[in-house]
UniProtKB/TrEMBL annotation:
Organism: Ancylostoma duodenale
InterPro entries tied to this protein: PCMT, SAM-dependent_MTases_sf
UniProt key word Cytoplasm: yes
Major location category of this protein: cytoplasm
Coiled-coil positions: none
BP GO annotations: methylation
Full protein name: protein-L-isoaspartate(D-aspartate) O-methyltransferase
TM helices/strands, residue ranges: none
Transferase found in the keyword field: yes
EC top class named in words: transferase
A GO CC annotation given for this chain: cytoplasm
Amino acid sequence: MSLHFTNELNPIRFAADEMCQRCSNRQIGLRVTYRLALRVASVPHIKFSNNFLQYFKHAAALEYLKNHLTEGAYALDVGSGSGYLTVCMALMTGSSGKVVGIEHIPQLVELAKENTMKHHADLINSGRILFVEGDGRKGYPMEQKYDAIHVGAAAETIPQPLIDQLAEGGRMLIPVGKESGNQ
């Protein structure tokens, strides 16, 4: 299983693919993912940029949530963007899991669908992944509560609908604090 969402430079694609492969095989750890993120950052013209930070944030999120992204788990990715992290989560939840990616920017919802259909159509066709446009602060109610919720953007407080949609014993990763603050 590999993802090919980053079409800019092969080393970026390689590092992202390797990170996702390790995630789906449950062989992730912050030391390993940090090295993979550094490989992304070492690409000419990328340096220590947002690409590095984004891959490292994704890796850290998957590491933090991995015990809740098991076979059959339900997960929510708020601010799903290109769909990359959502697909990694779906691979980790296995054939009986379900992951919803919610994004408020319509063009990003379409990009996530296109990316996933191009490289992992089975995830959409089987219903294991659903990308929706909406206000992530409201979550996306499903037939059962989520075992894992990832929120990519900071909130001043944790939105109550997300708390209500989290399963008992589930885990939510959300940066909390004032905008442009230390979360």
